[in-house]
Amino acid sequence: MSETITQSQTEQLNARQKQLDVLDQLLKPEVQESLNTLVEQLPQLTELVNILTKSYDFAQSVATDDVLKNDTVSAIS
Fold it and tell me: Per its UniProt entry, which superkingdom is the organism in (predicted)?
């Protein structure tokens, strides 16, 4: 029983240390600058993802369109 409690306490201490490590990293000026840059670029990233999604949907619809496939094969033959 005491092993379980000790192991649990050790895991809690490790988790706490990891949280403190993350906080220490977040306090660094270069990390804050990078995060600010990322936040500033989010609207452009969102727009890019939307465009890529539309392009993927179009390519997927073209690739699975049986009528287009048949017409293309007929035009080539």
Answer: Bacteria
CA distance 9 to 64: 56
pTM confidence score:
0.55
Number of domains forming the structure of the chain: 1
Mean pLDDT by groups of 10 residues along the chain of 77 residues = 72 85 92 96 97 98 92 90
The residue segments making up the domain with residue 35 are 2-76
The per-residue pLDDT for 4 is: 66
Q: Say how many C-beta atoms besides its own lie within 10 A of residue 24's C-beta.
A: 10
